[in-house]
Task: structure prediction
Amino acid sequence: MAELDIGRQIRDLESLFQGISKVLNPEGLRAIVVDLEAQATDPNIWDDQVNAQAVTTELSRTKAQLAQLESLGQDIKDLEDFKEMALEDKSAADEFALELARVTSELDQLETQTLLNGEYDPRGAILSVRSGAGGDDATDFAEMLMRMYLRYAEKNGHKAKVLEISHSEGAGIKSATVEMDFPYAYGQLSIESGTHRLVRMSPFNAAGKRQTSFAAIEVVPVMAVTESVEIPDSDIRIDVFRSSGPGGQSVNTTDSAVRITHAPTGIVVSCQNEKSQLQNKASAMRVLQSKLLDAQRRADNEKRKELAGDVKASWGEQMRSYVLAPYQMVKDLRTNYEENNPDDVFDGKLEGFIASGIRWRKMGQAN
Result:
């Protein structure tokens, strides 16, 4: 490991860190934390529970961002101190290389986060997976994608909860709804919205022919507690039923699962994973409100585009291909970013796709 090469890499990290620090402004973050902590410790704050929830949520998010920034700054200083040992000892050099890769990856992710300055980007997300054309291959693909996003959350230490699954009579799932509960979940995962395509030798075809199947991903931001979308009771129908597992097997002896249909839009949401009907209804209403808010936002955006004379779609019908045969590759058709190990991608390795997608979207917004 050459000294000049190590020194250059550390200087590059320091330069990138300084640029990120200017954008995030750690002194400003500390001032926000002090102000929010003062509000959170006010004994009267819970007189207004909506405001209290908003304050504590923002405090948690800001403290986490500040802690990450400070930790990475210290990690870069430690790399400089570690450099001499790495040059003299091979075992230390191997350890240094691993640490350098970790710090570089985390810094790249933090840099990507600085590009997420949209109104809804800092929020959690409701991610929906729906199988498309392709029979059993499509429902199997939908389940593979659901697991991929759950693994992405797990590997990054994020909270993710499956709210509802509709199992297929054959393989896989017809649909699933997952709540991603971590800062900037929507900003990151909104890149994943669109049609995903799988090409492989079908395990469900006796002749072993190559099969193309499709699945759709929809991502909407979680509504803040201070927002509301008026939903008249006359606009919704609420059905209750028993939760079920694969193949329709009952997993609950009471009618605790809830399905809500919004008549004006045709939006249907279900929740079956909470313990009580009341909890499932609350979760389903939260998902419905998030979807209605997103639909309203998209309608406003389309109207603005129409008035501006821009009627081009921002997202193609097919945004990513997962090819397992005759060669192996996962490629984003918008950014041209690709990975040559689909197993890694299906195991949650999405950082490269998300980072390139965020930069691609930012460039489109600037043009």
DSSP finds nine helices and eleven strands in the chain. The radius of gyration is 23 Å.
